[in-house]
Amino acid sequence: MKYTLNIKGAHKDIHYGHLNMHAHTKNGGKNPEGDIIDFNSYSMTVNDKPFFAITGEFHYSRYDRAFWEEEIMKMKACGLNIISTYIFWIHHEEEEGIFDFAGNNDVGEFIRLCNKHGLKVVLRIGPYAHGECRNGGLPDWMFGRPWEVRTNAPEYLKYVERYFDEIGRQVSGLMYKDGGPIVGIQLENEFMAACSPWEVTVSQQREWVTHGAGGVAHMEKLRELAFSAGIEPAFVTVTGWGDAPYVKGEMLPLWGGYAFWPWLFWDDGNSTAEKVHPPTYSYLFANEHCETAKNGEFSLYPFACCEMGGGMQVWYNYRFTVPPESVEAMALTTVANGCNFLGYFMFHGGCNPIGKCGYLNEQFNPRISYDFEAPLGEFGRVKESYKRIKLLHYFMEDYSAFLCNTPTILPETVVATPENLSDLRFAARSDGQSGFVFIGNYQDHLEQTDKNDVSISITANNNDEIIIPHTGGMCIPKDVACVLPFCMDMDGISLRYATAQYITRLETTEETAWFFFVHDGMAGEFCFEHDVKPDLLEGSEYVQHDGMGFVTVVGGEISRFSFDGNRRTTVYVLNREASLGLHRLTIGGEDLIAISRAALYTDGTHLFAETRNNHESVAVYPASVALESEALTSAGLCSGMAMYNISLPQKPAKLSVTKTYDNRAIIRFDTDILADASEVYLRTDYLGDIGWAFINGHLIHDNFYNGETWEIGLKRFARELCKHELYLYISPIHEGASMSMVENLAARVETFEKTTAEIIDVGIEIEQTVKLLVKST
User: Fold this and answer.
1) Please, which of 109, 229, 547, 663 could form a disulfide with 164 given CB 3.0 to 4.6 Å?
2) How much is the average pLDDT of 693-702?
3) Residue 479 pLDDT more than 90?
4) What is the Cα–Cα distance from 689 to 758, expressed in whole angstroms?
5) Residue 421 to residues 277, 440, 445, Cα–Cα distance (Å)
């Protein structure tokens, strides 16, 4: 089927100078070097130049500080340029008047590490936060006071002032105006729009933390208290949904969207009907940056996100898994719809700390686990969603200025409901002549269909018609979301279109290398103007017709072809599997491309390869970059890249599992393996309701059963495991449960038709990290 898209005269009206994001600041968003952060109506700017912000949420107090730095490096390797983090009040002042900013609560050290690796920070200071934290982050001791929280009650504001003053002391010198990385703060969260249960009331009733009151005046007061405490950033943000109030023109409203809504399945005790999750609108293309957009006044503000689902936390009454395709497709759709400030919640999972007075989680969630099925897991595992969105982030960085200046272009007939699975969903970001077609063939909670024999006809300026593909049709398999370029200038060579997705490019003294990948189930074709004939290096074929040249990718992990002009241009085309291992890194001031199944990241001097395999390979471009390590052997050149093999010693992981019952087991293993490994995972397959793990009677982790293997990273428990055994308990699923009372004994007897609780298999998996020296030859 042929679809059409008219991009003639595409233009984006961008307004400047109407926002006062530096209101009440002393430095006007400027750092000591004179750099100025600001906003126009469409994007963030740095020194008046567009800046495509990519932020990811990582909660320092939910993660062991010994591993903060390597996780920050992983986030940077994924293309993020900002880390956002909540400060949960209850984590720092669980007991009134006793503040704790030590250990995993050392927010200042966390921010300094972000700064060390060149990442900006948005600090979400609350005082109310939510984030599935106990009481939404408010301390228990605030319950029952003779005044209301989240209001301008003087007594409440007195405590907020004291709390902000403590935060100010911890982040002193780390604000952007002082040369630090904190560029923004978020005040409150979902103010006057959402709330949390007071956990101290859960066993008797469910009383909720108030939604808040006071409107804009309360937000102004919070800003005043934050600035007075020295928490004075370049800009202030708020969550915009739910008609949350904020100071117009002075605070930036941020948005979000999730594919999984576990709150729908909250048991209110009033409904016995089975609840079914509806398909969401997060995968539909729409112009979200215009006066009529559902998200608000986007003639004034950029469409910016802080809570686009990097996953979702499993709740007790809703046990789901988040497909990596859903995270990739949501990010792609959001950018297509006009977002130039992408923010994931969560990007990195974590574990809830255990407080002095009890657990610090929200009642619907596991006591400890806060994995969120995020791109980086609660013990640092790199997931497939990370690998997928990494490629999008590299594209967004390379084309930051283009995206921040081009509008969303929609076809005449737009898929308007998620139930429409027959029509192709697509849109473009374009300047009227060149651009990118965004195609989404994923829908949550419904099964999409393959779209076969599809072509898209684009009418550009001067009535130029670009048909993708030029002849025949292409297949868009179900669950694929892709970005296809058209009229792309490749060093003076005109790429009319490609049915491959752009990743990134890298310039060397000899050439410019362009990297693309082809989605599984799609045919890779590159169409060039003016009969430009390439040198076919490997895995490609070339034909000419209709005054154009066509390069077709014919298979293999990497295909290559090149052009000779003023400088050499080489095109690398990866298959999907190889693309997931591509990393763009800067080491020693030099950019390089490295491809490996291992997770790669850098401290700026060394390359780190994290893997669970004893044998890995790494391909490096340019080939003049040399890697050195005792674990490495050179494998020569392949596809113009330097190839290396990594061989790691086989580490024995003898495991003893003693079942005391079907659902209880004592776990013993040689704890010496914890010393050299970067992580050791205990992997448990089980049937039941909840998995519980203990060391010496202390709960260290829990898991709501959803059919997936339960993983626990043991490295952070090394000291305890050297002294004590670890044991597992699976609490059962009860079917047909009933309760009877023995009246004369005041006793209760619970009976069941069936119980399910069984430990099926337990194993150990070792993760190792290799440190590689990088040198230019």
Assistant:
1) 229
2) 97
3) yes
4) 10
5) 17, 11, 12
Please write the tens of the pLDDT for every residue from 197-221. Answer: 999 998 777 799 999 999 999 999 9
> What are the angstrom distances between the C-alpha of 471 and each of 131, 453, 517, 541, 548?
50, 10, 21, 16, 12
Structure letter (DSSP) for residue 427: E
Taking Cα atoms as reference points, which of 525, 500, 384, 362 lies closest to residue 439?
A: 500
A 10 A CB-CB count for 75 gives 27
Tally Cβ neighbours within 10 Å of residue 755: 16
Amino acid identity for residue 588 in this structure: G
Instruction: Supply the pTM of this predicted model.
Output: 0.97
Diameter over CA atoms, the chain: 97
The bridge status of strand 120-126 relative to strand 82-86 is parallel
- Confidence check: pLDDT of 280 > 70: yes
Q: Is 327 helix (H, G, I), strand (E, B) or coil?
A: helix
Contacts of 375 (CB under 8 A, 6+ apart): 56, 78, 310, 311, 327, 344, 347, 348, 382, 383, 385, 386, 389
**Where does residue 465 rank: exposed (0-12), middle (13-18), buried (19+ CB within 10 A)?**
exposed
Share of the chain above pLDDT 70, in %: 97
Could you check whether the bond before residue 411 is cis, i.e. omega within 30 degrees of 0? no
Query: CA 472 to CA 511: how far, in whole Å?
Result: 34
Cα separation, 475 vs 629, in Å, equals 44
Say what the alpha-carbon torsion angle 654, 380, 676, 73 is, to the nearest 10 degrees.
Answer: 160
Of the candidates 112, 160, 110, 158, which has an alpha carbon nearest to the alpha carbon of residue 138?
160
Give the number of other CB atoms < 10 A from CB of residue 17: 8
Please tell me the CATH superfamily of domain 52-259+277-402, with its number.
Glycosidases (3.20.20.80)
Identify the pLDDT of residue 272.
47
Q: Look up tokens 């002095």; give the residue.
A: 356
Q: How far apart are CA 159 and CA 46, in angstroms?
A: 36
Whose tokens are 């009229």? That residue is 487
The CA-to-CA distance between both ends of the chain, in Å, stands at 52
Cis previous bond, 396, omega within 30: no
Residue recorded with tokens 């090394």:
718
CB 191, CB 214: distance < 8 Å: no
> Looking at the chain, how many residues does it have?
777
Secondary structure class of 368 (helix, strand, coil): coil
Highest CATH level, class, for 409-579: mainly beta
Structure tokens that stand for 115 in this block: 């700064």
Identity of the highest mean pLDDT range in 264-268, 348-352, 732-736: 348-352
The pLDDT > 90 percentage for the chain reads 90
Candidate from 112-126, 226-240, 259-273, 658-672 with smallest mean pLDDT? 259-273
For residue 751, the Cα-to-chain-centroid distance in whole angstroms is: 44
Kindly state the average pLDDT of the residues 145-150: 97
Identify the CA nearest to 363 among candidates 211, 205, 256: 205
Query: To which H or E segment does residue 2 belong?
Result: strand 2-6
Is residue 5 within 8 Å of 456, Cβ to Cβ? yes
The CA distance from 137 to 352, in Å, is: 12
CB atoms within 10 A of CB 205: 8
Q: How far apart are CA 596 and CA 577, in angstroms?
A: 10
Summarize pLDDT for 590-625 with one digit per residue, the tens. 999 999 999 999 999 999 999 999 999 999 999 999
Q: 278 preceded by cis ω (within 30°)? A: no
Q: From CA 723, how far away is CA 750, in angstroms rounded?
A: 38
Which tens digit of pLDDT belongs to each residue from 160-184? Answer: 999 999 999 999 999 999 999 999 9
CA distance 99 to 170: 11
Q: Which residues, in sequence order, are bridge partners of residue 536?
A: 561
Contact between 757 and 731 (Cβ < 8 Å): yes
Mean pLDDT across 127-134 = 98
Position 742 scores a pLDDT of 65
